[in-house]
Amino acid sequence: MNRPPRARQTVLDAARRIVETRGAGQLTFETLAEESGITRGGITYHFPTKEALLKALIEADLAQWEEAAQVEVQALDDGTTCPRRAQAARLLGHVRCSLAEDDDGHRRFVSGLLSAAMADPELLDPVRAHVQREFADWRWDEADLERYLLLLAADGLFWSRLFGLSPVSAEVRLRLAARIEQRLRDLTGLAASEAPSSFPSSPSSDP
Description:
Layout: H1 5-22, H2 29-36, H3 40-46, H4 50-76, H5 83-100, H6 104-119, H7 125-134, H8 142-162, H9 170-188
């Protein structure tokens, strides 16, 4: 018997809520059936194992992140076809999305999945594949090394905030984000533009 496609998304949405509010360790078929309103048989039709479910959650989150980054890439498009400038636009999209993430629920979600990945590193295979695609056309010359250093700086800001280790205020974080973006632009010659709407609009929240 065919299951409605919507049932799969309902299961994923419920699983995400459980991970965000209770942690990945509390994600079981029983709690998922209760949260989603779908029977265990309906759940296992789409996700035979918990590992398959967790990997699907990671894939769905990564797809959402890539979609958001692509929106930023389109905003940065200056109409040229230079591969290096297109690469730079993708990198700026990555940086903007990393530094704009300011959602407590998403941070809890990422933390929960990281805990699960410590026990099963293969859960991060979709992320590894994404990284390989993103850097496949890099030449790793001096300019690429400089860009990668800035990418690491952006990632460091994201992870330090995720784990509550950031020593800076939201206002300083925005200044750092602007500094990273400007240095990327200086390296690639991309014209300056206003910060995207996905950046936090107010520095009122604490790190």
